[in-house]
Amino acid sequence: MDDAWRRGSMERYRLVPAGEGVQGRHPGEVPVAVKVLVGEDLTKHVRVKLTSTPVGVPQGGGHKHERCEHVAYIVSGQARIFLDDDPPLLLRSGDTLYISSGVFHDVVPAGDAPLVTLMVDVPPED
């Protein structure tokens, strides 16, 4: 598929075929594979990324964003999510979680399969 077919005139739309995307990074030292599907090269208002976290990643990679809000959709696997000082949440495949800006969050894979998450960041994190 060539770029002329995938991109609409004046970037009104863009198709990102399966398996494509731009390698990104995750804040901190957690070994998370990040693939940016929609990023700053297209829009300054939102970032959409697919993340994959291997089994066995310990708690301790948490952080917060002063401006960025997250919407996380669990594609596969399970996650234990720590938010501020609240008891952890257990999310499973198909669950969606909204995280407001300024909220400390730490995501730890739960279960025996890698955690795959579709993340939407508004505005894109710093």
Topology readout:
Blueprint: H1 3-6, E1 22-23, E2 33-38, E3 47-53, E4 69-76, E5 78-83, E6 89-92, E7 96-99, E8 105-110, E9 115-122
Antiparallel strand pairs: 1-2, 2-3, 3-9, 4-7, 4-9, 5-6, 5-8
Order of helices and strands: HEEEEEEEEE
With strands numbered from the N-terminus, the spatial order across the biggest sheet is 1-2-3-9-4-7
What percentage of the residues does DSSP assign to strands (E)? 35-45%
Tally of contiguous helical segments? 1
SSE class: mainly beta
Rg for CA atoms: 15 Å
CATH superfamily: Jelly Rolls
CATH classification, class level: Mainly Beta
* Span of the ends, CA to CA: 32 Å
Assign the CATH topology: Jelly Rolls
Which architecture per CATH? Answer: Sandwich
What kind of sheet is the major sheet?
Answer: 6 strands, antiparallel
How many structural units, i.e. domains?
1
Description:
The structure is a single chain. The chain is mainly beta. The chain has a single domain (21-122), classed as Jelly Rolls (Sandwich). The chain has one helix at residues 3-6, and strands at 22-23, 33-38, 47-53, 69-76, 78-83, 89-92, 96-99, 105-110, 115-122. The strands form two sheets. It has a six-stranded antiparallel sheet with strand order 1-2-3-9-4-7, with no helix packed on it. Strands 6-5-8 form a three-stranded antiparallel sheet, with no helix packed on it. A hairpin with an 8-residue loop joins strand 2 and strand 3. The model has no long low-confidence stretch (mean pLDDT 85).
